[in-house]
Amino acid sequence: MTRHEAVFADAARLDRVADGGAALAVTSPPYPMIAMWDPLFAERGAGIEQAEGRCDEAFEGMHRGLDAVWREVYRALAPGGIACIVVGDATRTCDGVFRLFASHARVLAGCLAIGFQSLPGIIWRKTTNAPNKFMGSGMLPPGAYVTLEHEHVLVLRKGARRRFATAAERRLRAESAFFWEERNQWFSDVWFGLTGADQTLSAEDARSRSGAFPFELAYRLVNMFSVKGDTVLDPFAGTGTTMLAAMASERHSISYEIDAAFRPVVEASAAALPACANRRIRERLERHRAFVEARARMGRPCANRNEPHDVACVSGQERHLLLREVAGVERGDDGVFTVRYAPVRAPRAAEPER
Ligand SMILES: C[S@@+](CC[C@H](N)C(=O)[O-])C[C@H]1O[C@@H](n2cnc3c(N)ncnc32)[C@H](O)[C@@H]1O
User: Fold this and answer.
1) Phi and psi of 87, rounded to 5°?
2) Are 159 and 251 members of one domain?
3) What is the mean pLDDT of residues 343-354?
4) What range does the domain containing 292 cover?
5) Are both 182 and 317 inside the same structural domain?
6) Where a domain ends, among 236, 271, 306?
7) Do residues 191 and 295 share a domain?
8) Buried b vs exposed e over 282-304: b needs ≥16 C-beta within 10 Å?
9) Which residues pair with 157 in a beta bridge?
């Protein structure tokens, strides 16, 4: 059973999270200098109007507001805990001059100043259908601009690598392993082909207004950088995608969102989670079985065996990997969700002889 708390309050004070109470943060802030977030920054006294149109001042003011949250995230993380911050840069014309505002660089600098260590990050290459793909002077050099079709996933750590001291901790870690072929895909530094936010999880208009990231993005990060039973934090929760990924991955979660209008969206998404999560979980097993079969056909059978799912695997580290389905999501009177799990009901494909 896991526990998930969605708090509708300012993340500048994560008072529901004890010092070191979270193992992982997966989040995406409002992006400075992107027009859709101008009103939110303005409400907080750091809008472009307050800076009287001086863009550098506005950009810095917006980031100073975010720094307060990064400081809280640092406090809330346990030693060895990881923060994955998804952030996109912005382009804007200021005083008639078109320029880039590199938020990823500013967030990284702010987090390093707080004390985070930087780890290799990911470029998330988005699938966009932007009608005005070509910016600037069209076909004429040198005033045509590269299109911004990616976002950054900054990966930061609080201190040195986490240690797993007890047998129980090591067991949970072993159960949280990912398959060898998943590792090859998930740990590549460019991600593409992640489909948009799953429309079955919540109303599409709410998701596009919120700048939601895809479920798959959060699901991978949760599985890459935490183990079962950990608490995952999202200080800028929006529609609650990180919470859903934590629910699907047997982690606890705590989310902060300043705009209470997202409450019904989060509740509807949680209610719709089992079908979506279980599709993804069964798909993981099915894809793994297909991978094992393909390897055997190529004359390179897998040398190890995963015990819980009775399937071959490449490495000994996958032996105890255990996937479980979401059996149910309940919302308590206190607004806290609890999630129950059950064995996976994936159809067993025939496996070639070893
Ligand atoms: C880019 S969106 C996050 C979208 C989210 N990852 C999802 O998948 O739905 C940023 C969110 O942060 C919220 N927000 C902005 N400032 C905040 C603050 N100080 N505390 C908590 N939430 C805040 C905004 O209302 C917005 O919903």
Assistant:
1) -145, 140
2) yes
3) 64
4) 285-343
5) no
6) 271
7) no
8) bebbeebbebbbebbeeeebbee
9) 82, 117
Examine the domain organization and report whether 174 and 318 are in the same domain.
no
Q: Is the CB of 241 under 6 A from ligand 1?
A: yes
What was the pLDDT predicted at 199? 44
239 lines ligand 1 (CB under 6 A): yes
Q: Return the residue whose CA atom lies nearest to atom 13 of ligand 1.
A: 236
Predicted TM-score (pTM) of this structure: 0.95
Distance in Å, CA 320 to ligand 1 centroid: 36
Which residue's CA is the closest to the ligand 1 atom numbered 3?
Answer: 238
The tally of CA atoms less than 13 A away on the side-chain side of residue 163 is: 4
Quick one: DSSP state of residue 188?
S
In a domain, 122, yes or no: yes
Separation between Cα atoms, residue 206 and residue 228, nearest integer Å? 30
Best CA proximity match to 310, nearest among 354, 276, 275: 354
For residue 238, the ligand 1 atom closest to its alpha carbon is 27
Torsion sign across C-alpha atoms 163, 168, 170, 174: negative
Does the Cβ of 238 fall within 6 Å of ligand 1?
yes
Q: Which residue, 283, 271, 125, is CA-closest to 203?
A: 271
Give the tens place of pLDDT for each residue, 113-164: 999 999 999 999 997 766 566 778 889 999 999 999 999 999 999 999 999 9
Q: Are residues 30 and 143 in the same domain?
A: yes
For residue 338, give the H/E element and its range: strand 337-343
Q: 131 and 217: one domain?
A: yes
Q: Is 57 helix (H, G, I), strand (E, B) or coil?
A: helix
Ligand 1 pocket test: pick from 13, 153, 221, 236 the residue with the most ligand atoms within 8 Å of its Cβ.
Answer: 236
The DSSP-derived string for 99-145 is EEE-HHHHHHHHHHHHTPEEEEEEEEE-----TT--EESTTSTTSEE
